[in-house]
Design brief:
single chain; about 150 residues; alpha+beta; GMP Synthetase, Chain A, domain 3; SH3 type barrels; 2 domains; three-stranded mixed sheet; 3 helices; elongated; RimP_N_sf; Ribosome_maturation_RimP; RimP_N; ribosome biogenesis; cytoplasm
Length: about 150
């Protein structure tokens, strides 16, 4: 009952703010509500406060004792939502699939797959030495075990 009420409040707040989307939502044993968000343009403190108020101001602390934590998905958190891939187009990703790990620039994200590009050194077709070639891979979402944005300094 409590979980359903919180889910409905969260859903309504996200309908109002279509630029934000849910990454994770849980309610622990003693009514500890945890909401993790991301947004098409990132997530600000004000965005977190908006979602927090939308939930908190519609629950009665006299009726239910609860704690509420609303946060943005961390920069090093794995990508879990298709909208996160679209948001991170042209950034470098590390993608772990069932058969390999690929590091490359995310050049496209569609409904079904992502496209990564990277440069690799390969032996020259004729003669000695190596040449740099541009490689590309299309990876279906269902083949991705984990994907993270690579943060370079």
């Amino acid at each position: 009952m409590f979980k359903t009420k919180v889910e409905n409040l969260l859903e309504n707040a996200l309908l109002e703010r279509s630029d934000l989307f849910l990454i994770d939502f849980s309610i622990q044993g003693d009514n500890q509500i945890k909401v993790v968000l991301d947004g098409d343009q990132g997530v600000s403190v004000e965005d977190c406060m908006f979602i927090s108020r939308a939930i908190e101001h519609n629950l009665d602390r006299e009726e239910e004792d609860f704690s509420l934590e609303v946060m943005s998905a961390g920069a090093t958190s794995p990508l879990v939502n298709r909208r996160q891939y679209i948001k991170n187009t042209s950034r470098e990703l590390m993608v772990k699939t069932t058969s390999e790990v690929i590091e490359g620039v995310l050049v496209n994200a569609t409904e079904n797959e992502i496209t990564l590009e990277w440069k690799a050194k390969e032996p020259k077709p004729v003669g000695k030495g190596k040449i740099v070639v541009k490689k590309q891979a299309n990876i279906a979402y269902h083949d991705i075990i984990e994907a993270k944005v690579l943060i370079k300094f």
